[in-house]
Structures are given as structure tokens and as C-alpha cells.
Amino acid sequence: KSLFNSFITLDQTINLNKLKVISQTNTFSSLQSSIESTTHHKFTLKTFQQILYIVPHFFIYKYEPSSNNNYDLIIDIPNDHINRINQTYPSNNNFISIQYQPNSFNCIVNPITQYDLNKRREIFKNILYEIVNDYHTKYLNENNIKIQFDVFKSKTWHHEFDLEKNCEDIPLHELVQQPQMVQVFQKVINEK
User: Model's pTM, two decimal places?
Assistant: First the structure.
């Protein structure tokens, strides 16, 4: 549930930043601060990687040099977000996330509609349900429980199924490696 709430808040925060008169760069640290104050849960790089594992095509990211001789992770919603939403489709109640790798950092300029935010939220939630449902089915089989559950109808699990105990962590999406900051020293030769 906290991963789902983090996703919703990440989406909304990036979108709200587009409404500001002075456009704000969506650095990981600024998004982290906003998400943590809203959800009261830690938002770490691991959390972002888990979100990317579930919907890798919903966000784009890059590293930009910062003022403190380091790199900032910049995260945004891609300009072609509607096409990317349409690339995640239901197939017999199995939501399939299609890997999409952008060629460039082409992010939205204007905020996206509430309808599209809701659609993105629904897709994320359904993929998350599918992942948990796989663990639930495994639990039922291992314990010889002969009950059929349709997670999309019942919105519940077997009463003995414990999410914390019976589900593994969502795997991490591997991020592009952060570039190494190279410092160039200039030797000044004074000629007299």
C-alpha cells in the first residue's frame, strides 16, 4: 500500500510542478521531500526503482550535473505519456507492462489531465494486484486451499494470507548508472 501511495504522490507532485509559474526541476531530492511529507513514509531510491519495475515506461529520468560537484537524478513524466498508457493493456485481467526505453529526455511541458492521472493509477494498482495475486495463488497451492479468488472482484485475500510474510519485495528496476564526476585541474604557468 505504501508503494501505491508513493506512486500516486510521485505522479501528482511531478504534475503539480508543471502548474507553477516558475518551472521546477524534478530532482529526486525535491520529490523525495515532497512525497515523504505527504505520505509520511520514506521515499528512497529503492522505492523509485520498485515503481519503475512495475511501470518502467511511466517515467523518464536522467542525471544532470549539480552545483555541488555531483549529479542530481531528474525524474519526469514523458511527453508521450498517453501512448505509453496505451502500451499497458489488459489481457484476460492480466495487466502486461511493456518495457519502453526513451531515446531522449522529452518530458511533459503542461500538466496532464486528472483522467490520465487516474488511468495511470489504475494501471499501476492492477499490475501490483497481479504481482500480489501470484504470491496469493502460490500460498493457496502450497497450503492445499481449494478456494478460487478473483482479486479484481473480491478485492481481498484469504484470511490467513499475510502480505508481509508471504510476498517478496518488489524487484528493483536497474537504473542507468550515474556518471562519474571528473574534476579537471588546470595548471597555471606564470611566465615572467
Answer: 0.78
